[in-house]
Amino acid sequence: MSAPSGAMRERVRIAIQKSGRLAEPARALLSSCGLSWRESRDRLFCHGDSTPIDLLLVRDDDIPGLLAEGTCDLGIVGRNVLLERASGYGTGEVPPFREWRGLGFGACRLALAVPQAWSDSQAAALDGLRIATSYPALVSQWLKERGIAADVVTLSGSVEIAPRLGTADLICDIVSSGATLAANQLRATDIVLDSEAVLAGPVAPFGDARAEIAGLFLRRLDAVLGLRDSKLLMFQTDSANVPALMALLPDAERPTVMQVDGTDRVALQAVCRGTVTWQRLEDLKRAGADALLVLPVERMLA
Ligand code: ATP
Ligand code: MG
Q: What is the distance in A from the centroid of ligand 2 to the CA of 156?
């Protein structure tokens, strides 16, 4: 970690959460892109083995700042954290980082929540009220866009207790199941942001060897993300059934149809992008498919 920010580098550094909700899924995703690391003893920096891509293990809140100062090149962080930092840039200032890809895990919502006893009309009239949140920039922007003159009270934790303590009237916080809200006699009203883990990177392209490394990584990542839920579906049928069966498989990509020797039967195989449920298999069987087989797809290079 000796290179100064902005220096030419020949390796790419990806910052991920050291421990917490995004830590394991982020590592698993990077591993499925073929990355592996030699663990360092302090486990804050992991040197990439098979590819020139190293890992920085940090607190999630630090990732936008590390990207901004160029200490890391890419980061995996919640959209909530990334956009909060981006919203903190003043008008006319462009944040040096942006979301490159949504990653499909760590889903949650930043939502307003009011005391359960409030009526809907009470919850809709927020002018003059105090909103406790750890996301002051996002909440202020949301209020401004709607012309609502409410006060934002910034708290770093235990936001959901604020209405009971009298430090705020309502809150704006991360919600996934809603169980924490219910335990604090709150109910969610408006959604300020739909969030998930994202790959964040610089706005400007890399001007050195990192461009090629990041390009390779992105191609692998897109292949991995594109294959999520994909399955290889195989079955046999009479050739006359093929059109009806294909109509049941609108998500099948470039199906291969092979004649079964000396019969008018065919064997068909296709990668299906949507989930292959039991219901779909039963529909295919009714339409004449048999010997149905569904296999996971590990890798695909189109
Ligand atoms: P750190 O020690 O790295 O600062 P943290 O406590 O701030 O960790 P976590 O609670 O691990 O962070 O959450 C990391 C991210 O996971 C959040 O920023 C958010 O994007 C996502 N997330 C998904 N579900 C939830 C949830 N129910 N509560 C909070 N965050 C969630
Ligand atoms: Mg954090």
A: 10
Determine the distance separating the centroid of ligand 1 and the alpha carbon of 20, expressed in angstroms: 7
At residue 2, does pLDDT exceed 60? no
Residues of the chain above pLDDT 70, percent: 97
Q: What token pair was written down for 31?
A: 């591993």
238-263: pLDDT as tens digits: 999 999 999 999 989 889 999 998 89
Q: Is 78 in the pocket of ligand 1 (CB under 6 A)?
A: yes
pLDDT at 279: 95
Counting ligands in written order, the one closest to the CA of 174 is 1
pTM of the predicted model as reported, rounded to 2 decimal places: 0.86
Amino acid in position 45: F
The full DSSP string for the chain is: --SPTT---SSEEEEEESSSTTHHHHHHHHHHTT--EEPPTTSSEEEESSSSEEEEEE-GGGHHHHHHTTS-SEEEEEHHHHHHHHHTSPTT---SEEEEEE-S-S-EEEEEEEETTS-HHHHH--TT-EEEES-HHHHHHHHHHTT---EEEE-SS-GGGHHHHTS-SEEEEEESSSHHHHHTTEEEEEEEEEE-EEEEEESSPPSSTHHHHHHHHHHHHHHHHHHTT-EEEEEEEEGGGHHHHHHT-TTEEEEEEEE-TTSSEEEEEEEESS---HHHHHHHHHTT-EEEEEEE------
Q: Which of 2-11, 56-65, 116-125, 181-190 has the lowest mean pLDDT?
A: 2-11
Query: Which residues place a Cβ less than 5 A from the ion ligand 2?
Result: 60-61
199 lines ligand 1 (CB under 6 A): no
Calpha distance 293→270 (Å, rounded): 11
Burial 118-151 (b: 16+ CB within 10 A, else e): beeeebeebeebbbbbbbbbbbbbbbeeeeeebe
